[in-house]
Amino acid sequence: MLELLSSYLAYDFVRHALVVGSVAAVLGAVVGYFVIIRNVGFAAHALGHIGFTGATGAALFGLAPLPGVVLICGAAGALMGVTGNRLRRSELAVGMVLSISLGLGSLFLMLYRGFAGQATAILFGNIFGVSTAQVWETIGLAAFSLGALALFSRKLLFASLQPDLAESRGLSLTGLSTAFMLILAVSVALASQVVGMLLVFTLVIGPAGIAARLCRGYWTALALSIAVALGTVWTGILLACLTNWPPSFWITSILFVLYLLTELLSRYVLRRER
Amino acid sequence: MTPALSIHQLGIRLGGRELLRGVDAKIAEGEFIGVFGPNGSGKSTLMRAILGLCPIHSGRLEVFGQAPGRANRAIGYLPQIHSGLDATALSARALVAAVQGGDRWGVPWPSRAARAEVARALDLAGADSYADRSFAVLSAGERQRVALAQALLGQPRLLILDEPLANLDPKNQRLLVERIQEIRRATRATVLFIAHDVNPLLRVMDRVLYLAGGNAALGAVDEVITSDFLSRLYGVAIQVVRADGRIFIVNAESNLVETARHA
After folding, report:
1. CB atoms near residue A258 (< 10 Å)
2. Are B215 and B21 a contacting pair, CB within 8 Å?
3. B76 interfacial to chain A (CB closer than 8 Å)
């Protein structure tokens, strides 16, 4: 078994996949926790689809997909953040931004007329096709996002849990919401390299959602979220090597099983508490 | 001594509509004021104006002698709406800890002093016995105590409590009012307590601030809550019925009982 593992690790593309997967997993796990407590799952989901427009647009203009995705997700995220800082209003804002992006995406796809394999790679991810330059890009973007989040996470947590109180203490709900949506946009773009646009939701929502349902403190929740994300991505990549089935399939399947176990467990925990 | 709250000819507009006009009120430090009025009469808006979150159209409003928003560190606020946290297992203590120092930069790692302050507030609110349980599994009464603990952080001199009795059964209403009265005695804080029904507060409040029809009146219960006075304030015929030491405020035309709504 160990021999088999080390033989896989001899390949550059496997090592790159593991690095990019780990980075995306950690970023998704941390940002995802804020997605859960801010209740902006729909926005995270929409950003994944919006990234599709960025990727097709980038292809149309002859750019690499990642800058295109980061650019359009960032713009869309900022727009969502500015227009819908309160949870009650954000659904409409997200929906409208999603609609116009998908509309543009359909136009780009029509104009592009490239080979369809590219579109599949964008939609379902292509973690085994990551170049060395992309590895560094990913690490840089993730470090920037996590650094920025660390800078204002205390304010963000307060504003997410008690917006009215936070406002009375002079915090700008719109500013925090916009800054967070920008970071979420970068995370979605990075995670989409691993599992693709359609499944990006998995890495952002899955591990954090599981941890949030089980942990009573935010630091324990973050630790569990990161552990689940890393474990899932590593196992998924390994199983993909062994079976030749796509890593996206394995990652989503593992997370789904973990989610079912969490539901059972959290029900048991909550009942015993009462 | 500077009054806790000094309001002079205050006018507030909301979305072009005149919500309050010519409001005068002077509230001394340490007073317990019950704030009443029908839905949409501007109770919550007036509280937001005190916090500097809602612009003042005319007149003057001072909190501890300062412009609204300037003295917010001295104000403990219990807002009406609480975030839905039913999908997470986050504990009540973690929730309160997020508020303590939540206006600072950096990561939310609470210092020893912050943890001690959170424990003090939870204890004062009477929520310490279930503080480490998930907020999602707490009862309405327990959740309200946790919200109260958040308002008590930083030893505020003024407590603004926006409908803390909503969704509570009569027994929990009584327990919460008693606890707030104890806190007021221990901390000498001024209390602005918004409620729908005057009865749970009859024994504890010093004066009443009654908002209706864009007007406001501040005075003793027996002065303000009378048929004549409220009829003038509302601009329609109101009947105040006293029975068994309880007060019922009835719209004489529709027989609508203002109290009993949350009972």
Report:
1. 17
2. yes
3. no
What the block records as the tokens of B37 is: 């009025």
- pTM, to two decimals: 0.90
Determine whether the interchain pair A221/B90 forms a contact, defined as Cβ–Cβ distance below 8 Å. yes
As a whole number, mean pLDDT of residues A114-132 equals 74
* Cβ within 8 Å, pair A151-B99: no
Instruction: With residue B23 as reference, give the H or E element that holds it.
Output: strand B17-27
In chain B, where do the E strands start and end? 5-14, 17-27, 32-36, 58-63, 75-78, 158-162, 190-194, 207-212, 215-219, 238-243, 246-251
Q: Complex ipTM, two decimals?
A: 0.89
C-alpha to C-alpha distance for A228 and A30, rounded to whole angstroms: 11
> Given B69, B109, B134, which is nearest A270 (Cβ)?
B134
Higher pLDDT, B258 or A110: A110
Tokens of B179: 């606890």
Q: Write the pLDDT tens digit of every residue in B118-174.
A: 999 999 999 999 999 999 889 889 999 999 999 999 999 999 999 999 889 999 999
Chain B residues near residue A269 by CB distance under 8 angstroms: 89
Contact A213, B88 (CB under 8 A): yes
Q: Which of residues 206-235 of A touch B (CB under 8 A)?
A: 209, 212-219, 221
Cα B218 to the chain's mean position, in Å?
Answer: 15
| Mean pLDDT score, A161-173 | 91
